[in-house]
Structure formats: structure tokens, C-alpha cells
Amino acid sequence: MNSITSLTALEILDSRGWPTIKTTCTLADGTRASASIPSGRSTGAAEACELRDGDPARYRGKGCRQAVANVNTTLHEALRTTAFASQQELDQALIALDGSPNKQRLGANALLSVSIAFARAIAAQQKRPLHEYFSYLIREQAYQPTRFPRLTINLFSGGRHAGKQVAIQDVLIVPSAARSIDESLVMMNDIYHAAADRTFARYGMRLLTADEGGLAPPFEDSEAMLQAAVAAIESAGWQPGRDVHLALDIAASHFYRDGRYLLDDRRLSPLEMIDHLSDWCRRYPIVSLEDGLAEDDWQHWPLLQQALGEKILILGDDLLCTNPERIRRAIDSRACNGLLLKVNQIGTLSEAAAARSLAKAAGWQVTISVRSGETEDNWAADLAVGWAADQFKNGSITQSERLAKYNRLLEIEAQRPLPIVDWPLV
Length: 426
Description:
Order of helices and strands: EEEHEHHHEEHHEEEHEHEHEHEHEH
Number of strands: 14
Strand order of the largest sheet: 5-6-7-10-11-12-13-14
Pfam family, one: Enolase_N
CATH class of the largest domain: Alpha Beta
Distance between the termini: 46 Å
Number of domains: 2
Radius of gyration: 21 Å
Domain Enolase C-terminal TIM barrel: 145-418
CATH superfamily of the largest domain: Enolase-like C-terminal domain
GO molecular function, one term: phosphopyruvate hydratase activity
Helix content: 25-40%
Number of helices: 12
Strand content: 15-25%
Oligomer: single chain
CATH architecture of the largest domain: Alpha-Beta Barrel
Binding site for Mg(2+): 249, 290, 317
Largest sheet: 8 strands, mixed, barrel
Cofactor: Mg(2+)
Structural class: alpha/beta
């Protein structure tokens, strides 16, 4: 049994300069650990509530003082001296203390900060790496991770991550020929700098980057992003479709209006949107589509899965929101074949683990993802290893909040040289 003696929280800034929350958990034996929580810009309507202050005079209403206060008072007072036999027991107590359907009373950001800080404290108490503790939580690997995830790395950004200069949100690089994390990052470095050189030559602009570190030149349309990605791969000396593939984050909810998809200068019906995505997949080396349709377009997701699901990953992000109820609905309707797992969409580690288990039981792939508003905290890298993620989506290879996770993966790989998972459909 592990007793919490203190919970203290602090408002800090994320990678976009907006507030988020950092919590420190102290156990009865004096073990202490902290965790910082990310925040998303492209958020699904069904995500757990991220509590913000709403004061327009401070951080334009996005302050987190109330969430901090909820940790320092409500959660500290309720949980101190309480002994917990497991992570699930602690997380169930957090959910009960909040008592609202979507964690709006205390805030999912407050609850998750306690959940992860407690996990890190227990791992430290047990003198285990955090990824081993995470592995134990899913009770599949007896503390021993067996592989690394395949990386999907941001190259170009549009949508809400880059001022909406084009409709789709991200074009990501999949170094599918790489046999290690180190080799994946070497390949990506070649491709990133080839893309940067071509961006300067084509647009005469310096390296302006988007929320997750991707390059964001003023492309004429979304397809120009795909063409530029393929050209960068070739310029770096790799063969598209053999050595390197593409993954797309469409984020279609953000350009869905009145039953139509406003894709750049096109106004497409759902069936036309599926045809358009299918055409891209025929002409470009695409292995994954994330949120190819809007989060509430349940009628047409099964048709997208039927059209492309045997060839590529059809990932649900806004559609699923790491929410077990929505995942069950998607499994029953055969709406997709992959879960994009973001822990802060649901609010506690145990609930995220349950979402992962549902997806894996259905035969789905699981991509663990960070958010656009990240911190230098690297726990997401340990989570991707410990939970045997099939893919890890962490943004580009620039900016310290991204590098903290990649560097943590390199550190784990140096200590434990495990194989990297093969891409399932390549």
C-alpha cells in the first residue's frame, strides 16, 4: 500500500506559451515525483474537460489557476494519508472526487497531473524505469517491454497547427526501412533538411515552424504538401514507398460544414471525400490516415474503412477521443482499425489503459500521441515503450518539448536495444 502525504501543483507554460499544470506527488516514505500535462489545439468535442479559468484579463481566459487550486486543496486534502494498493485504485478515487461525466468539476488536466505524478513516484519508489511501471499497468509484459514503436514524424503542417494555410493538418514521415529509433531519427534528419532546403528555394522563406515543429510554407493547396514531402524524401536519397512512407493527419472535423468537406477550394460530399482520399492513397506512399472524416460523421466512417482499411491504417482521433464508449461504437460499426491514444483526452492512466485494451482486443493498431501544446516532460516516451505502442506520434525533430521525448527513446534504446515494430501493412 502506498500513501500520499502531499500533492502540490503549479501553473507553468507549454510549448505555445499557454498555461498548463505541473503536479508533484510525495509518498509517505519521502519519495517525490512530478509530472507536467500537455494541452491540445485540435481537440475533439468528446474529450474530457481541460479546466481553464475563463478570465479574459489573464492569458486570454486560458489560465489554469483553478485547476492548480483543485490539486492543492480538494485533491490534496482528500487523498493525503490515503493508502492506495494500485494505480487503478488511485485513479478511481480521482474520478469519484470529480464526480462529473467529463471531469469538468476538477478538470481533466488536474486529475491527469496527479495520476501521472503518482505513477512516476511509485516507479521511483520501486527503483524501476517509468516504462517498466507503465508496462506493468497493462499486465501484459511483466515489467519487460519487448519492442519500440515505429515513429511517425511531422514534416509539414497546415490546419490549426499552422494558421490554416491549407486544410489538412499534418504530413508525417514514416521511416519504414529503419531498424532502430536512432536510425529513424537519422533518416528523418536527412529528409527534414532536404525539405527545408527546398522550402527556401521554392518560397524564399526561413524555417518558420508550426505548433509541433513541422515546416509550414504557404502551400498552394493540401496536395502540394504531399508532393513536397515525396520530393524531400527523394532529395534525401531515399525511395518513397520502399524506404519511407507518409502518414496524414487530415483533421477533417475542422473543415466540415453542413454535411460537406471544404478541402481547400473544393466542396466535397462525404462520398467524394472518401474518393479523394482513396485517390491520394493510390498516387502517394500513404500508410496511415488520421481523422479522414469528421468526428460526428459516423455514417461514413465504415465506408472509409471498407475502401482503404485493408491497405492502410484508418486512425480515429477526434472520432474516438481515447473514450471507451466511442471506441466500442467504432468497433461495432467497423469504423476504423486504429486508435490514436492521447491520455489527456480521457483524464487518467487507468482509463487510457482500458481504451488501449479495447482497441488491441479488436485487433487494432495503437498509436500513442502527444499534443500540440507540450512541455519538456518526457513521460510520453516511456508510455509508448511501456504500452507497446505500434506507432509513436511526437511532432517534428525540432523544439525542445519534442526532443525531450525522442532523446528519452534514445536513452531507453541505449539501455535496452530492442527491435522496432514493423509497419503492419507495408
